[in-house]
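hey can u check if this looks right to u? its 139 residues, i copy pasted from the old doc so theres a chance i mangled smth
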Amino acid sequence: MQLKSIPCAVLFLTLATWLVDLGCTKPVQPTELPGLYEASSEAGTETLELRSDGEYLLRFKDRKGVELTENGHWRYEPYEGEPKVALEDYRPNLWDFGLPPAQAKGSLSLLGIERSWWGGIRLYASYSADKYYSKKARG
């Protein structure tokens, strides 16, 4: 009787360990950040490319096909123990944060960094409004 319960116990422990590992995500390392991120809304689609040389390119395309491009510098910022991406002169076109262009120019914006439970990386412009860019797979 005890021999039958051992395989069940091993199976249970293996499954429990796998579920705990699935829920615990490892922190995003700065070297994982460069790449292409994308966000969409009813206004259009915006891509944010973080380049390994510290430059970024922000492209917005509205539903009518009008395209806008911005660029600037970015860096990893371990802001008060919470990792962030710091973007200089970041002016998103996808979401209205109420910043007039004159005020946004020359500013520094922080995007929160999170790894999803399936391993994808998100850059959050607003946690409360659930506005984020998702990293695109290389391909």
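The chain has one domain: 26-135.
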